[in-house]
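Annotated sample (chain length 194).
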Amino acid sequence: MDEGYHELLAQVASMYYEQDMTQTEAGAELSLSRIKIYRLLKQAKANQVVQIKVDWPATRAKSLEEAVRQRFGLKEALVLQTTYHHHTPLLQRLGQLGARYLERIRQDGMTLAICLGSSTYHVVNSISPTFRAKIQVTQAMGSMPFAFQEMDSAALARQLAQKLGGEVLYLSSPFIADSSEAAETLRRQHIQGG
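Output written by the structure step:
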């Protein structure tokens, strides 16, 4: 995207979302029509110049949590209460529930191992931007050539560590070996620090 166009999108988005100007007011100040401002705001969202996050309440199913906790002998269980009339993305709400849990239980010096996938992606992206923790984040599994690289365990570990101000530890191996010979080579590798 052209830097000048990016600047215009950011300016229009700031006027509308941060300064609470109407589209007509922003248009008047920039000598643009209200329709042009509307289109620029749509472009700002489409190009992720502006990102809107809705913090839906993560309502929990307490009785089901207790049943799961007792059945599997867990210290704690979280179960998201869902309703069919909600059109909110379920994974986003689940991510918010997971993020609030991590923010609550974290202790400085702890190590957190994370996997790949869309649910982990939503947890990482739901961590409050002001939340900080002195923790190590490591991959629980090797990397996988994904269509969506942002959901790979290495990318998610790096993103979470950066977001928290922590340290990332990479697992330098693939999730799936290309052949049985490659798998055997990986199994024979010396483990550093182990």
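Annotation: The radius of gyration is 22 Å.
Annotation: The chain has eight helices and three strands.
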